[in-house]
Specification:
alpha/beta; binds NADP nicotinamide-adenine-dinucleotide phosphate; about 50% helix; 8 helices
Length: about 240
Amino acid sequence: MKRQTILITGASHGIGKAIALRFAKEGFSLVLNCKTDITLLENFANELQQTYGVRAVAVAGDVSDHTFVCSLFEKAATLFGGVDVLVNNAGISHIGLLTDLSIEEWNHIIATNLTSVFSCCHEAIPYMVHQKSGCIINISSVWGNVGASCEVAYSASKGGVNSFTKALAKELAPSSIPVNAIACGVIDTRMNGCFDAEERRALEDEIPMGRYGTPEEVADLAWQLATAPTYLTGQILTIDGGWQ
Ligand code: NAP
């Protein structure tokens, strides 16, 4: 039987890395992407291959660049036949007043967090429809549900991901391909490294669970989504310790 293949964008750090580890433990072949540090990603891919006996390939490139995304999926097709599970995880945050945001920064955030999801789905879907199976998971944010002051562009990009998820789920339901999103609260990754110890404590006090979530908890949810009945589709699953 063909091994299942997962493609994860932004897999060199944080949530994407934890998802890669979770699916490697389950025997998946992995196509791992990040934007900058190819050495880091290659070392991680090698570690997964050696520890779990899986095939893993590291591909550096910017997922906001549609041409790069096309080449990423061509590589996945050549190596593994196609992608069975797509995790759109790569993302960036930006904190600041909207009036201080330049048009270039706005375009960069939207292209990285939202247009990349279009590009990856656009390239992943034909194989999935042909196979009559597959699964798409988008990593979103609670700010996509409720909006955050000083994170307007980020909130808009994740709100876009949530609507994209619901719409695409309807489009792909006749092909039995579930499309869901995970809306994360505060997860303990590099993305929140901007907060000092005092700010972190204040944030933890706001969260009913009293702590940040871990990337491993998000990865467990991604695994559960990938193995859930296909009838579960078009959902935005919030994982935030009861925060929002
Ligand atoms: P992270 O630790 O900063 O990791 C982000 C990953 O995305 C890195 O591997 C990074 O690679 C990659 N990436 C960024 N821009 C890219 C691009 N243009 N092309 C390809 N890869 C790119 O962040 P994280 O916290 O794990 O975040 C992962 C996802 O969860 C994001 O979509 C984020 O919005 C979402 N999320 C996180 C939180 C949280 O509290 N951490 C909350 C809600 C939602 P390079 O380092 O090479 O750029």
